[in-house]
Write a structure and sequence with these properties.
It contains 15 helices and 14 strands. The protein has 445 residues and is an alpha+beta fold. The strands form 3 sheets. Strands 9, 10, 11, 12, 13 and 14 form a 6-stranded antiparallel sheet that branches. It has a 5-stranded mixed sheet with strand order 5-6-1-7-8. The protein has a 3-stranded mixed sheet with strand order 3-2-4.
Length: 445
């Protein structure tokens, strides 16, 4: 039986991580407002990361550069450097593991650890957290701060880490509840999405105290599954850890397009490169895919009604399209495969529909492109082709791509690739920041 004063989880959240890394690497920007943008040399792009100094001036993530400059003419604007953030992430993880084993890396700027029995006394846990902060400051970088939460459940520890940002340290025990969190809006509780908030409101629950009073069975009914019951028990401080994540449900990549890649013709090699990266990851985890989805958003929104109806609703047994005035999603299905040639042919089919849609628009320029593979299953679960010659050709092609993957891992990520991609700017392709997935080095080698 656990005591009311015990804490069993440490949750660590790096403060303004991407902007802080840039300030660590660029001493002249420390203490200055700074934003990170996906592309160089454009005022139209939005901030994807904001330093704490910029936040204090009202600059927020997603704000356009031109608007940020109006709020602060002196704001430093730096392009994203994906590989640099991953490099610092691994340095930070190594330092934290000097203090205690990490249980789970949730994203590039969040991780959690289960405390040992001797560390569960709040004051001992607090000293441990302070030691982690000192270790980061002295052994990694003074510009890289973190907020740490200590609590009896991982959910509460995450909530505690968010309560005193930046550079915070908050301890929540069962004896502190619910008073310590009663003032928070429901939307600030991790796990309360907009959809769940609406369901709670429909059940008459509009604040944390109402949420606290929910019985686990009631929460299960509102959520529609066991997640609700587990959530309420964790909110009360029970150490109810969710099951480990299963195999991936999809694999993909996306990019905000540079100005020179915003026409469908210029964006095509970008989409191909993103697809080939996803396909290599698919083979690395020994999976196959049976569907590909291409999504794009237009740079300028136009009324859907002004375009021919058949373009808005085009579909067949193997291709489906959803379109509105802001973007387009096309899904192509095929037999389960790990063959990049199969995926490229599927992308060609989707791209042909994209080009038809673009021709119906006054402004056919694209803002971004995403390509992902889904309907995944383990490679050894695939049903073999009844025709022996086709099965042999499939095996030969997949062996070819496995060898290409091996060469790219050994000699660099783009050693072997289609000739049409050779002139694509590698720096541009590396600009996407990893939020939920920490890439392997070969992903941007």
């Amino acid at each position: 039986m656990h005591e009311d004063g015990e804490v069993r989880w440490l949750f660590l959240d790096f403060d303004s991580y991407f902007a802080s890394v840039e300030q660590q690497e660029r001493p002249e920007t420390r203490g200055r407002p700074l934003i990170v943008v996906p592309l160089e040399d454009t005022e139209a792009t939005g901030a994807i990361a904001v330093s704490r100094e910029a936040k204090r001036l009202g600059i927020r993530r997603g704000m356009r550069v031109e608007e940020a400059r109006r709020l602060c003419p002196d704001v430093a604007v730096v392009p994203a450097r994906h590989e640099v953030y991953v490099h610092w992430h691994h340095r930070l993880v190594a330092e934290i593991e000097r203090h205690l084993p990490i249980d789970l890396v949730h994203s590039i700027d969040e991780l959690s650890a289960r405390l040992g029995r001797s560390q569960q006394v709040p004051e001992t846990a607090r000293l441990l957290a302070q030691g982690i902060k000192r270790g980061i400051a002295t052994r990694v970088g003074g510009a890289l701060t973190c907020s740490i939460g200590l609590a009896p459940s991982r959910l509460l520890a995450k909530l505690a880490a968010e309560m005193d940002k930046p550079d915070g340290l908050r301890v929540l025990t069962r004896a502190d509840l619910p008073e310590a969190i009663a003032h928070l809006p429901l939307e600030e509780i991790p796990g309360i999405s907009g959809g769940i908030a609406r369901r709670l409101a429909a059940a008459g629950i509009r604040d944390v105290i109402g949420l606290w009073r929910l019985a686990p069975k009631q929460a299960r009914a509102i959520w529609g599954n066991v997640t609700g019951e587990r959530f309420i028990r964790a909110l009360h401080g029970e150490d109810v850890d969710p099951p480990p994540p299963g195999p991936p449900r999809s694999l993909g990549h996306g990019r905000v397009l540079a100005p020179e890649h915003r026409t469908p013709t210029a964006a095509w090699p970008v989409a191909c490169a993103l697809l080939l990266k996803a396909a290599a990851r698919l083979r690395r985890v020994e999976m196959t895919a049976a569907a590909l989805t291409l999504t794009v958003s237009w740079l300028v929104r136009e009324p859907t009604a002004s375009r021919p109806a058949f373009l808005r609703a085009a579909s067949s047994s193997s291709l489906r399209m959803r379109s509105d005035d802001g973007g387009l999603a096309l899904t192509v299905r095929f037999l389960p495969s790990a063959d990049s040639f199969v995926f490229l042919r599927a992308l060609e089919r989707a791209w042909a529909q994209l080009e038809k849609q673009a021709r119906s628009r006054r402004n056919p320029r694209l803002r971004n492109v995403y390509v992902y593979l889904h309907e995944l299953q383990p490679e050894n679960a695939r049903q073999l082709d009844l025709f022996a010659d086709r099965e042999t050709r499939r095996e030969e092609r997949e062996r070819l791509w496995a060898e290409i993957d091996r060469l790219n891992r050994r000699f660099g990520g783009r050693t072997v690739e289609p000739a049409a991609l050779k002139h694509l700017d590698l720096k541009y392709l590396g600009a996407k920041i990893a939020f939920g997935r920490i890439p392997a080095p070969e992903d941007f080698a």
